[in-house]
Write a structure and sequence with these properties.
mainly alpha
Length: 429
């Protein structure tokens, strides 16, 4: 998925003198910045951007799965905390676990963007066709997309607040930079991923012509993933580990639309299992008791990857544009494409409003637990898109336990507000 990024592990070297008990340690200090100018260090810099992006997606996909009712909280522990506010679908700036996603995404963005600039100055052949530069630009772009899709507003490098649209525009620019740098067939996957990422960004910016042009460059079978590891806990797939049953049962598929849907269809995109009598870790505040533990099976182990982009997503974006244009038949052909491939019954809406309802459900199924639902819900709300959500995922419905004021984007977190003098200490301040 990305060049020379090995399965990450921790290695320590200890030297003990056999003839003397001298335990003094000399700290050589931080690595001198100039060493990062060496070509042999460039790929490691790009890989650092990737690692931070994967950390950020891990946090965002996990938290928003509860906020959007892709999953349901089932007694969160301190390690996998879903706060009372988040259980109600509310994202508050001083909630502890909001900090981690923001910090990792900003680090990923900075490492990728600054790395690309460094390579341009220090690599003799420039950045076009240079593998570390292609990777750095691509992961910077995905990091900006993560921030733009999920945060209400952002800030860059200690600067003033910028809007969600401005962050998405940064992502668009970096995807374009990736496409330009990926000049040969050796970078076909990276270039296709950049087209797919840019298509999703342009859709959220309302540039549907641009989105359709980019989506057309992406084959339906294409997939580009964030990778997770099995060696260390901070590199595990967080959704899997939080609901692995051993040691945690912090989230459950219970009380989501995917329970009945999977029972009725067996759709391999939304699998879960349940053993009679299994319950979550602890009482859930919004329910007032423990809840049944239904274990998701989409991510089957600690090292399960999460998609960043796919051809199936592109076909759904094309379907959304057709629905916007009133072409129900054309839209449903695209919506049902993967269903037919999987041997599932197609959606058969009676009218355009019902077609939107089916589309919203299908996009939730296709991108389940990939950290994309929050942005979709916000786009549809902002655009006034027709079609209903199920009661189990509708804010204000008693079945969903979601507050009527459900938050559809993250606020800038408390740590950034306290360290950045250009941002008010509290939202709206």
């Amino acid at each position: 998925m990305f060049r020379s990024l090995k399965r990450l592990g921790a290695a320590s070297v200890f030297i003990v003198a056999a003839t003397a008990c001298d335990f003094q340690v000399t700290n050589p200090g931080p690595t001198d910045d100039k060493f990062l100018d060496r070509p042999e260090a460039h790929q490691a810099v790009a890989n650092g951007s990737a690692r931070m992006l994967f950390d950020a997606l891990n946090e965002v996909a996990y938290t928003t799965s509860a906020v959007t009712r892709e999953m349901f909280p089932s007694g969160s522990t301190s390690s996998f905390g879903i706060s009372q506010n988040q259980q109600e679908g509310l994202l508050i700036y001083d909630d502890e676990h909001i900090v981690d996603g923001w910090t990792s995404a900003q680090r990923a963005r900075y490492i990728g963007e600054s790395g690309f600039a460094r390579f341009a100055e220090t690599h003799e052949g420039g950045n076009t066709g240079y593998a570390p530069a292609v990777d750095a630009a691509l992961y910077a772009a995905y990091s900006d997309r993560l921030l733009g899709e999920n945060w209400c507003e952002s800030a860059v490098d200690g600067g003033s607040i910028i809007t969600r649209a401005e962050m998405l525009q940064r992502a668009e620019e970096w995807f374009t930079t990736t496409i330009e740098a990926a000049s040969s067939s050796a970078f076909a996957d990276e270039k296709t991923a950049a087209y797919a990422g840019r298509a999703s960004v342009r859709a959220n910016l309302g540039d549907w012509a641009g989105a359709m042009s980019d989506a057309a460059q992406v084959p339906t079978s294409f997939e580009f993933d964030a990778r997770y590891e099995t060696a260390q806990q901070d590199q595990f797939n967080r959704i899997y580990f939080a609901g692995a049953s051993e040691p945690y049962r912090a989230v459950t598929v219970w009380n989501t639309v995917y329970v009945d849907y999977y029972d009725q269809t067996g759709d391999p995109r939304t699998p879960w299992t349940y053993h009679e009598g299994d319950v979550g870790d602890a009482s859930v505040g919004v329910v007032g008791s423990k809840v049944p533990f239904y274990q998701q099976q989409k991510f089957a182990d600690r090292g399960s990857d999460i998609r960043l982009s796919s051809g199936y997503e592109m076909r759904l974006l094309e379907a959304e544009k057709k629905l916007m244009d009133g072409d129900m038949a054309g839209a449903m052909t695209l919506v049902n494409g993967h269903r037919v491939e999987l041997g599932l019954d197609p959606w058969t809406p009676a009218d355009i409003t019902e077609a939107w309802t089916d589309y919203k459900r299908e996009r939730g199924i296709e991108l389940w637990l990939e950290g994309r639902r929050l942005s979709d819900l916000k786009r549809w709300k902002d655009n006034g898109s027709p079609g209903a959500l199920d009661d189990l995922e509708t804010a204000g419905s008693a079945a969903s336990y979601l507050d009527p004021g459900q938050t559809l984007c993250y606020p800038i977190p408390k740590n950034e507000r306290e360290s950045n003098p250009n941002i008010p200490l509290q939202p709206g301040g």
